Amino acid sequence: MIYDGKAIKVKEIEGGIAQLNFDLEGESVNKFNRLTIEELGEAAGKLKDAKNIKGLVVTSSKDSFIVGADITEFTDLFAGPEEDLVANNLKANDVFNTIEDLPFPTVTAINGMALGGGFEMCLSTDYRVADNKAKVGLPEVKLGIFPGFGGTVRLSRLIGADYAIEWISGGSENRADKALNEGAVDSVVEADKLVEAAVAIINEANAGKLDYKARREEKQGKLKLNAMESMMVFETAKGFVAGKAGKNYPSPVESIKVMQKHAGLTRDKAIEVEAKGFAKMAKTNTAACLVGLFLNDQELKKKSKQWEKEANPVNLSAVLGAGIMGGGVAFQSALKGTPILMKDINQDGIDLGLSEAKKLLTKRIDKGKMKPDQMADVLNNITPTLNYGDFGNVDIVVEAVVENPKVKDAVLRETEDHIGENAILTSNTSTISIDTLAKNLKRPENFCGMHFFNPVHMMPLVEVIRGEKTSDRAVATTVAYAKAMGKTPIVVNNCPGFLVNRILFPYFGGFLHLIRDGADFQHVDKVMEKFGWPMGPAYLQDVVGMDTSKHAGDVMAEGFPDRMSHDSKTAIDVMFEKERLGQKSGKGFYQYELDKKGKQKKVVDEETYELLKPVVQQQNEFTDDEIIERMMVPLCLETVRCLEDGIVDTPTEADMGLVYGIGFPPFRGGALRYIDDLGVEEFVRIADKYADLGALYHPTDKLREMAKNGETFFG
């Protein structure tokens, strides 16, 4: 044994060839934490001094090679001074450089995923062999940073600036065949042939058939672009990527700037440029929020795993109502491998549900995400039916009929009579109380809410709503089923609107008050989109539908009359009365036309301003900051109330519900993180400016106490 550590072991395997194997003790995956980097440095030193070693094969004993850096170490690291970040990266790079400079040919055998620092490890060896199911990439921009272990330097010199810019600024995970075609790996083989293929490359290099030293010099040298070529490549890319990423996500463009700066430098100087650029990005609030979201997501996964331990197995599911929503649920379940019965009361509904599933599958084929023959497999997982014939065999049912308590009550009671005593019954309601729906059920302990967001295939969140009588087993099974469908479940307690809609409607309330006080809805939309929302509140109302908003708004007003009821007619009331329901009717705040691709696009409709005149009580000009404050304060305060009322257990779940459920700007981290970033004391001061607008803007006593004590939600 050449080296024996807790994360890395090195031994000689055959003919003077050494094998460096990653196998981090106590972990299901390999990742670059402090221990692993330290041991890699020690192992590299042993290899450098070893006698009679003719080559090195780098492998992994886990299902994936290395999934990246240990993000849990980022928060402490990023909180330190910028110069310490630079020094930390340069120290890590010394280890990677030692691997790259070993006095014999080196090959990485990539199994599964090699991402971030894991792929940078691969880049430090002379050659790379991947199994045919491997994925490689540098996804650091998704955390608000970019590669810091030499990735921008080595990849740009290995595959060229154009491809490197695409990989790094896009943060993509690339399949083995793409990596091979673009030069990032040298061979793709079956998983069981990896080591054999790597050894063969080393033997060819030692026999002089492959010039590994020339390959190494290419990676360590300057980028092969003249001044004009360099300017064309980088300047064009910066403009394109800036337009795509937006100003709120600076790291994709910064990664290109860094590659441009070090293009004319050799490896060691280029790595210094990368380290300084990395540290600059790591100190941004965007990076702090995106890393926070990643850690929050990991926390949600841990919670889900705990629930899954108590879950019943789900081998067959069912959905009631085969419309757009029901079809979406059926598609998602079938796509992820859980067979599902799709029931409706008439054939037209069945046809609509199947049509929705086929449409979504066709899109996947068109985008290259699925092969045509796989479409039939998914459709075969959906069994349409007009009766309850096979419902005795289902493990869980999702009711997705019209949002009407009487209809839902009748459907749920009827369904309960046709399913087994242990089957879980759920309702995809967005507003109706779970306790109300459970009143007439024989087994309320087997009933809970399972609220999907539209469109089902795109929105990651599922709210699992616990009623007063809901059992842990019902919650656990629903959580497990949501996970099996590829969704992120958050368990919430029952209240009007549950978590997401309860928080969303105060935001809409802020919007309606702005319209009442004379704000231009288009200006409000532009300001909030600039703030980071995927669409402004007027546009969002059009997408949701005025009928849906009015119904949900009435439920919220009944549940929270002090802050969610309105003293006079609102803009939503006007739109609803005029049957301007939004996109579904072709007109709402905006008018909708089909573009060349057949997609709806919004255009300005001057008639809207005439229609709104009766509800405009004042004429005011609002600054952008005033609009942001009047929109965000109600949303943030309601998030605080949900936490204080125990609707969710933790700030993590509250913030992730908003990011995953309604597109809260990820680079801002969530409503409670946003309060923390402003400072709780400052947020309370801003809210108090608008105290005369009513209870929507009144901080809770506990929040005032937090402000007084200098406390935060996330520490």
UniProtKB/TrEMBL annotation:
<dbReference type="InterPro" id="IPR012799">
    <property type="entry name" value="FadB"/>
</dbReference>
<dbReference type="InterPro" id="IPR006176">
    <property type="entry name" value="3-OHacyl-CoA_DH_NAD-bd"/>
</dbReference>
<dbReference type="InterPro" id="IPR050136">
    <property type="entry name" value="FA_oxidation_alpha_subunit"/>
</dbReference>
<comment type="pathway">
    <text>Lipid metabolism; fatty acid beta-oxidation.</text>
</comment>
<dbReference type="InterPro" id="IPR006180">
    <property type="entry name" value="3-OHacyl-CoA_DH_CS"/>
</dbReference>
<keyword id="KW-0443">Lipid metabolism</keyword>
<dbReference type="InterPro" id="IPR001753">
    <property type="entry name" value="Enoyl-CoA_hydra/iso"/>
</dbReference>
<keyword id="KW-0413">Isomerase</keyword>
<protein>
    <recommendedName>
        <fullName>enoyl-CoA hydratase</fullName>
        <ecNumber>4.2.1.17</ecNumber>
    </recommendedName>
</protein>
<keyword id="KW-0276">Fatty acid metabolism</keyword>
<dbReference type="Pfam" id="PF02737">
    <property type="entry name" value="3HCDH_N"/>
</dbReference>
<dbReference type="Pfam" id="PF00725">
    <property type="entry name" value="3HCDH"/>
</dbReference>
<keyword id="KW-0456">Lyase</keyword>
<comment type="similarity">
    <text>In the N-terminal section; belongs to the enoyl-CoA hydratase/isomerase family.</text>
</comment>
<dbReference type="GO" id="GO:0036125">
    <property type="term" value="C:fatty acid beta-oxidation multienzyme complex"/>
</dbReference>
<dbReference type="GO" id="GO:0004300">
    <property type="term" value="F:enoyl-CoA hydratase activity"/>
</dbReference>
<feature type="domain" description="3-hydroxyacyl-CoA dehydrogenase NAD binding">
    <location>
        <begin position="318"/>
        <end position="495"/>
    </location>
</feature>
<dbReference type="GO" id="GO:0008692">
    <property type="term" value="F:3-hydroxybutyryl-CoA epimerase activity"/>
</dbReference>
<dbReference type="GO" id="GO:0004165">
    <property type="term" value="F:delta(3)-delta(2)-enoyl-CoA isomerase activity"/>
</dbReference>
<dbReference type="InterPro" id="IPR008927">
    <property type="entry name" value="6-PGluconate_DH-like_C_sf"/>
</dbReference>
<keyword id="KW-0520">NAD</keyword>
<keyword id="KW-0511">Multifunctional enzyme</keyword>
<dbReference type="GO" id="GO:0016509">
    <property type="term" value="F:long-chain (3S)-3-hydroxyacyl-CoA dehydrogenase (NAD+) activity"/>
</dbReference>
<dbReference type="InterPro" id="IPR029045">
    <property type="entry name" value="ClpP/crotonase-like_dom_sf"/>
</dbReference>
<keyword id="KW-0442">Lipid degradation</keyword>
<dbReference type="InterPro" id="IPR036291">
    <property type="entry name" value="NAD(P)-bd_dom_sf"/>
</dbReference>
<dbReference type="GO" id="GO:0070403">
    <property type="term" value="F:NAD+ binding"/>
</dbReference>
<comment type="similarity">
    <text>In the central section; belongs to the 3-hydroxyacyl-CoA dehydrogenase family.</text>
</comment>
<keyword id="KW-0560">Oxidoreductase</keyword>
<dbReference type="GO" id="GO:0006635">
    <property type="term" value="P:fatty acid beta-oxidation"/>
</dbReference>
<dbReference type="InterPro" id="IPR018376">
    <property type="entry name" value="Enoyl-CoA_hyd/isom_CS"/>
</dbReference>
<feature type="domain" description="3-hydroxyacyl-CoA dehydrogenase C-terminal">
    <location>
        <begin position="497"/>
        <end position="592"/>
    </location>
</feature>
<dbReference type="Pfam" id="PF00378">
    <property type="entry name" value="ECH_1"/>
</dbReference>
<dbReference type="InterPro" id="IPR006108">
    <property type="entry name" value="3HC_DH_C"/>
</dbReference>
